[in-house]
Amino acid sequence: MSDERPLKTPSRPPRICSQYKNIIVNVFRYFRKHEHYDHISDIEMKTAKATHVSRRSVSRFRAQGKVGTISSPPRQKRPAPVFDSTDHIARDAIRREILAFYERGVVPTLDLLLERVKEPPISFAGGNSSLRVLIEEDLGFSFKKQYRRRPLLMERDDILAERSKYLREIETNRRSIEPRPEIFIDEIMVKPNVSVEYTSTVKGAESWFKGASYIISLAGGKDGFIPGALMIRPVNAEDYEETMNHDIFKEWFLHQLLPNIPSKSLIVMDNAPYHSKLLKKAPTRITSKSETVKWLQDNSIEHDPTYSKAELLQIVAIYKNSFQRFEIDDFASAAGHRVLRLPKHYCQFNPVELILAQIKDEIEKSNSNRDESIENIIRQAVVDVISKDWQKWFHHALDIENDYRRKFVAYERAFESFVMNLPIV
Length: 425
Prior knowledge:
Elements: H1 18-34, H2 40-51, H3 55-67, H4 81-84, H5 88-104, H6 110-117, H7 128-138, E1 141-145, E2 151-155, H8 157-175, E3 182-190, E4 193-198, E5 205-210, E6 213-221, E7 224-225, E8 231-235, H9 240-243, H10 246-257, E9 266-269, H11 289-298, H12 309-323, H13 327-334, E10 338-341, H14 351-365, E11 367-369, H15 374-421
Parallel strand pairs: 3-9, 4-11, 9-10
Antiparallel strand pairs: 1-2, 3-6, 4-5, 6-7, 6-8
């Protein structure tokens, strides 16, 4: 019996890159030079058989080579259903699981974290790689290697600083002699289900489809929501970012929010682009040197105008966050209020965000017919959720704040201990 094994026929690569296309074209050229055929199609057939592609593909690659360079097809992004099914509540729970490791004095690793988050109530459906992408891209954590020691899972310094600043400022307001009333605001897009009768096939049958989209803006504090600040706005586009812009938000802010909130309020909002239009942007690389010098002069920042533009931009980078002013903040200040912005990735500190998420679920689960006013259905859902669950979500957000305060103290204490005691690698 022969020991020789039959050679495996190489399978066609699922995605033909430019390098493989060039190989196919070179095989064609070799056959054309060294073997005599009457027709080009015969050479293409032999090339196709040798390279395990179709003759049509060989012809197409040859044509690409004649016109210009042979390029690879665009890389397809693999869908990530795990991320779509992980809502903001689950993501917050994962973040708190990471910090809980520090509370227990345990070095967090991906394997240990995955073991925890796969259990209810989180029930994370992905694996190690999906979890790593989630915590690095969406939660603001990263593995940082300490000097000659194993990497540690750490929250990004900028996010940690924003969170600490927010918790300190809101606590300072609550402990002050005359605390400002806290007014939280947020927006969300909903798409109610609508039923219509159609008679093209079966008389009286009903068809369900997604109705027009609506933007809901809501505001409220510990005493309840602000009725005059409720906005329900129909929109046509599918993309929320295309429909909610600074002009719409500014109109709502000036004409519905500010006239209806208590005097000297503390308005809490996130850093959405339409909340954050700058009055005057800081200089960048494309700004002229003279404009860069003027910005430094206007803000009384010490500098030497004879410095190069690159040196001046380094000075700008140090001070720009301290001098940036948002248009909305100025409107609030002129009316006697103050704006406090939520830290990045911490929308759960905002009870209105949690309430709007419940309202959206209620609206999109409900079915209505076209004879009903969709706006009335949305208003009723808002009233029902707020009357039953406003206080629940408000106190839930306060509990989350206090939990993070405790976890942050444990995080800093444990982190220093870990850095000192990690084994050298």
